[in-house]
Specification:
There is one protein chain. By secondary structure, this protein is an alpha/beta fold. It folds into two domains: about 220 residues, Rossmann fold (3-Layer(aba) Sandwich), CATH 3.40.50; about 210 residues, Rossmann fold, CATH 3.40.50. An eight-stranded mixed beta sheet has the order 3-4-2-1-5-6-7-8, sandwiched between helices. The longest helix is centred in the C-terminal third of the chain and has 21 residues. The protein is globular and about 65 Å long. The structure holds adenosine-5'-diphosphate (ADP) and 6-O-phosphono-alpha-D-glucopyranose. Pfam families: Glyco_transf_20.
């Protein structure tokens, strides 16, 4: 069997390769475990000097990592601009947040073509190539134009919007035709697959996207949740919270995650259900992400102000209602706080999958599990109908679900959790990769 070649814009840093952080990297680490593989992508360095860089090659844990730097102009046009200022909002149904620029589309196409040129000499004839996510929509086409004949698959980690919405993006047809060049296309949910297939139809693109929901490694997350409880940081936190009920939220600081609406929902809980005042506290961990992009900076200011106001309105001398942290927290600490929390509050306005929801379920104690309050617009929602599903745009619905969760009986919590746990352990990172690669390896060879 040929090697697996994974290509993603974000490649785990050398520290993360030992203990990977984040859903995409965890899933992929599992995918490449035990087979010879090459992982190619951006080094994370945006100070590159050379328009035509040479890859830095490193071996770690049986995988070869090949990475290149981007120049400041490439980083601005390709990463900040077209990928995260244009494609990200459009794919998350937020057309009004898109600031379109034809120059940025050009840089995006150039960087995809650059990835193809640098990758090609590293390829062997029987490799299968698996390209990840929206930053690399046009990489497959660029490889084909260079004469690469290997099987090339593509997986989209984020949502794909309905044709009318995606079609509003200038250059949409060009992108769709490029995506149509992949041999196998994978989406997170039925809805995403329906949407992209409906966009393909009028263009006569023959390939059909399939559904391959991504998961986590639930056993390893549970181990972290149990062992993390021994850390000094967690012990201090436990002391500060005492036996009061705890709500947890963990998200990159991103406008797709519905954070202002969530803060309003918590505020509404305290306003409408006074019995929870002075008791329940809400810990939101939201590490800053893509901080150079304007829409993200604006969100950060909004949340700073909201958090200050909520605490100003409700805090007591001996009770802090909202704890808000914008730094990264060690994975084990996070896992064990999930286990301690009575409610996992996961309310994105749109999300490809949302692994945090699955992590919350995996971390629970079966004898006393917490309740997941989940947005119906997360990709995880169809798999987890036993969560309390809410419309994340409605702070009252969030408040009512939180109140319901805080009062839920042990037997109902156990009943809901065991069904969610079944879902989280049957669709994992490993099954996701296995299922996709099986289809890709079985695809007919490129003509
Ligand atoms: P997204 O891919 O949009 O960031 P997901 O919920 O699918 O959203 O995946 C996020 C991943 O990053 C999860 O595995 C989560 O545990 C991890 N993560 C999020 N915030 C932090 C943090 N502050 N510290 C460490 N890991 C984090
Ligand atoms: C989401 C995207 C990934 C991306 C990650 C972190 O999970 O689907 O493609 O790598 O967010 O974002 P960043 O811009 O830091 O790579």
């Amino acid at each position: 069997m040929g090697r697996l070649v994974v290509v993603s814009n974000r490649v785990p840093s050398s520290k993360e390769r030992v203990q990977p952080a984040g859903g995409l990297t965890v899933g992929l680490k599992d995918a490449i475990k035990g087979e010879p593989s090459l992982w190619f992508g951006w080094s994370g360095n945006a100070q590159g000097k050379d328009d035509e860089p040479r890859p830095v090659i490193e071996e770690q844990g049986g995988t070869t990592y090949a990475t290149i730097d981007l120049t400041p102009a490439q980083h601005k046009g390709f990463y900040q601009g077209f990928s995260n200022g244009i494609l990200w909002p459009v794919c998350h149904y937020r057309l009004a947040l898109m600031s379109y620029s034809r120059e940025e589309l050009q840089t995006y196409l150039e960087v995809n073509a650059l990835f193809a040129r640098v990758l090609k000499p590293l390829l062997k004839p029987d490799d299968v190539i698996w390209v990840q996510d929206y930053q690399l929509f046009t990489l497959g086409e660029a490889l084909r134009e260079l004469g690469v004949r290997n099987r090339i698959g593509f997986f989209l980690h984020i949502p794909f919007p309905p044709p009318g919405l995606f079609g509003a993006l200038p250059g949409a047809e060009q992108l769709l035709r490029a995506i149509g060049r992949y041999d196998v296309i994978g989406m997170q949910t039925e809805e995403d697959a329906r949407n992209i297939n409906a966009s393909f139809e009028p263009l006569g693109i023959a390939v059909r996207a399939g559904v391959f929901p991504i998961g986590i490694d639930p056993q390893s997350f549970l181990r972290d949740a149990i062992s993390g409880g021994r850390s000094a940081q967690v012990k201090r936190f436990d002391q500060a919270v005492g036996d009061r009920p705890l709500i947890i939220g963990v998200d990159r600081l991103d406008y797709s995650k519905g954070l202002p609406e969530r803060f309003h929902g918590f505020d509404r809980l305290l306003r409408r259900f006074p019995q929870h005042r002075g008791k329940v506290s809400f810990l939101q961990v939201a590490p800053v992400s893509r901080g150079e992009v304007q829409q993200y900076r604006r969100l950060r200011r909004e949340l700073d102000e909201l958090a200050g106001r909520i605490n100003g309105d409700w805090a007591e001398m001996d009770w802090t209602p909202l704890r808000y942290i914008t730094r990264a927290v060690p994975r084990k600490v996070l896992a064990s706080v999930h286990r301690r929390a009575n409610i996992g509050l996961v309310t994105p306005l749109r999300d490809g999958m949302n692994l945090v929801a699955k992590e919350y379920v995996a971390a629970q104690d079966p004898e006393d599990p917490g309740v997941l309050v989940l947005s119906r617009f997360a990709g995880a929602a169809p798999e987890l109908p036993d969560a309390l599903l809410v419309n994340p745009y409605d702070p009252d619905e969030i408040a009512e679900a939180l109140d319901q969760a805080l009062g839920m009986s042990l037997s109902e919590r156990k009943r809901r959790w065991s069904r969610m746990h079944e879902a989280v352990t049957s669709t994992t990172a490993a099954t996701w990769a296995r299922d996709f690669l099986q289809v890709l390896r079985g695809a007919p060879e490129a003509a």
